[in-house]
C-alpha cells in the first residue's frame, strides 16, 4: 500500500505530522508493506530565492501580524511540537524560498532517502536556525546522508529536477490539496493536518484491511467460459 505525503519543510505542522505519522507506522505489524513517498508543496512560492528573513520579520512584513500575535501563534505551535517530541526554536528559524530544498529532497528520493532528507531539513530549519535556501547549507545536509557533493551541486545549479518538483505541486492542486501536511492513502483516502498518532494508526489500518480484503476477494474468483464466480 502506498501513502503519499505533501509537505513543505517551512511548515511546522508538517514536522509534527511527520513525527505522529511515523510513530503510528512503527506500531503497525504490516509497516513493511507500506511504501511512503514524500511530495513537494510550497506554502509561499512568492518568496525571492536566495533571500532570507527571520520568522518575526516574515509575519510582520508578509502576513501583517503584530509581534504579539505572531508570538502567540508560534508559542501555541511550540506546545504542540513538544507533545510530538520536537523543540521548535522559532526565534532562530529563517524563512526562505524552499524550492531548492525540494530539489534536494527529489535527489534524495532517487537514493531512497526521501524521509531522511525531510528530517534533516526540518531539523535544520526549525531547530538549528539554518537557511535551507542556501546552497552551501543544502550541500552539507545532503552530505550528512551520504549524497555526493558534486551530484548535489549539479542538481541545485541546474534545472534538471525543476519539472519534477513543479509537477508534484500541480498534482496537489489537481487533487484539491490547498494546505499541508496532506496524506493520501492508497489514492482512496485523504488525511489533512498534523493528526494525533492514534488517528493515523486507525486510518492506515482501516485502509490496509480494506485493501487486503479486496485482494483476497480477487484471488477467490473462479472464472470459466461462462463467467466468474466466487
Provide a compact summary of the structure.
This protein is of the alpha+beta class. Helix content is 53%, strand content 14%.
Walkthrough of the structure:
This protein has 230 residues and is α+β, with helices and mostly antiparallel strands. It has a single domain, classed as Glutaredoxin, CATH 3.40.30. The chain is built from nine helices and eight strands. The protein has helices at residues 12-26, 55-61, 67-83, 99-110, 114-127, 135-144, 149-157, 162-174, 197-220; strands at 2-7, 35-40, 52-54, 94-96, 182-185, 189-192, 222-224, 227-229. The mean pLDDT is 93.
User: Biggest sheet: strands, sense, closure?
Assistant: 4 strands, mixed
SSE ordering: EHEEHHEHHHHHEEHEE
Number of helices: 9
Rounded to the nearest angstrom, the distance between the terminal CA atoms is 25 Å
CATH topology: Glutaredoxin
Strand order of the largest sheet: 2-1-5-6
Radius of gyration: 20 Å
Strand content: 5-15%
Question: Level of helix content?
Answer: 40-55%
Q: Superfamily at the CATH H level?
A: Glutaredoxin
Tally of strands: 8
Helical/strand content category: alpha+beta
- Low-confidence region ranges: none
What's the number of domains? 1
Roughly what is the average pLDDT, rounded to an integer? Answer: 93
Shape: globular
Top-tier CATH class: Alpha Beta
Going by CATH, the architecture would be 3-Layer(aba) Sandwich
